[in-house]
UniProtKB/TrEMBL annotation:
One of its GO terms (molecular function) is ATP binding. Pfam families: ABC_tran, TOBE_2. One of its GO terms (biological process) is carbohydrate transport. It is an enzyme of class 3 (hydrolase). The lineage of its organism: Bacteria, Bacillati, Cyanobacteriota, Cyanophyceae, Gomontiellales. Gene3D superfamilies: 2.40.50.100, Nucleic acid-binding proteins (2.40.50.140), P-loop containing nucleotide triphosphate hydrolases (3.40.50.300). SUPFAM superfamilies: MOP-like (SSF50331), P-loop containing nucleoside triphosphate hydrolases (SSF52540). Residues 4-236 form the ABC transporter domain. This is Carbohydrate ABC transporter ATP-binding protein, CUT1 family. Keywords: ATP-binding, Cell membrane, Hydrolase, Membrane, Nucleotide-binding, Translocase, Transport. The keyword Signal does not apply. It comes from Crinalium epipsammum PCC 9333.
Amino acid sequence: MARLELINLNKTYSPKVIPVKDISLTVENNEFLTLLGPSGCGKSTTLRLIAGLEEVTRGQIMIGGEDVTNKRPGDRNIAMVFQSYALYPHMTVYENLCSGLKLKKVASEEIKRRVTEAARVLGLDEGLMSRKPGQLSGGQRQRVAVGRALVRSPHVFLLDEPLSNLDALLREKVRADIKELFAAQGVPVVYVTHDQTEAMTLSTKVAVLDQGYVQQLDSPERIYSHPATQFVAGFVGSPQMNLLTLRCEGRNAMLGDFGIALPGFVDSVLPNVVLGIRPENVRIARLEDTQTVTGKVFLVENLGMHYLISVRVDDAQGNSPTVRALVPLDQPWSNERITLAIPPESIHWYDHQTGDSLAKKKMGRC
């Protein structure tokens, strides 16, 4: 058992290429941390720094209280599962599973015990053990790659987009297996993905990265319900959150022709603010709703259980901001004029310049 700590971790390739910038975080035993973000945000580089496959420019990596920043990968007692599986094509499944243990000169009986246990946990039956990777399906190859990591009994597991090569149905099945499997290991797990569904379903903690910085480190529930920055709000959630830059007039932010009341914590003179609200929180207005906007539906998308409608809000200045809402499948909405409720309790407010949450800053007034 060992906790993983990253302390002010930096990686610089050149003055203009700095993929990892002052990342500090801790992953405890039994925690599953996902590094989530778009391509180029620094998540895979961070994983490679932890593994020792990249050299740290500045900062520290601690495993179990020991500084491993300058240790070789083989001396860190970590196990990594790669996106490409990285199996030896000329070896059988059994030989792939035990290859790392043989390099460490583990006793033959112990190797057999560990491989047998990993195969049992992963559902790799005896008939597969003599096959080579080219004779396996994508899901089976992924299980072998995970099994090779399991048999090492490492202090930390690292997984770099391990499901990206699988089709959608198989990805869902293997994702469930991974969640159950690593919950039983009792060691820190760091998982890299750009897929928010994987991050939200697998993790106990999520670090959302952008341009080398951690934008927010929190539970999946908090990441979704209380996004700390405009970037997190826009990146996490499907359909994507409505993010609208609005001009301020007194104590209102103007959404087209309609005033949206500003909360008390927005209390400095700002020309603009960003309003964020998820489509599932926007609804067809009822008589009791006091904060509403009216417009015309110009796009209807069938999502199976709901329609996602896009509404051009009435605007005398001709800007016609668009609000998207999830609505029932009970009528054809195309070209309808409708009134939408914008519930105040569902709105997130962001600084137009910095993208930071105004609720978190507790400063700024229009």
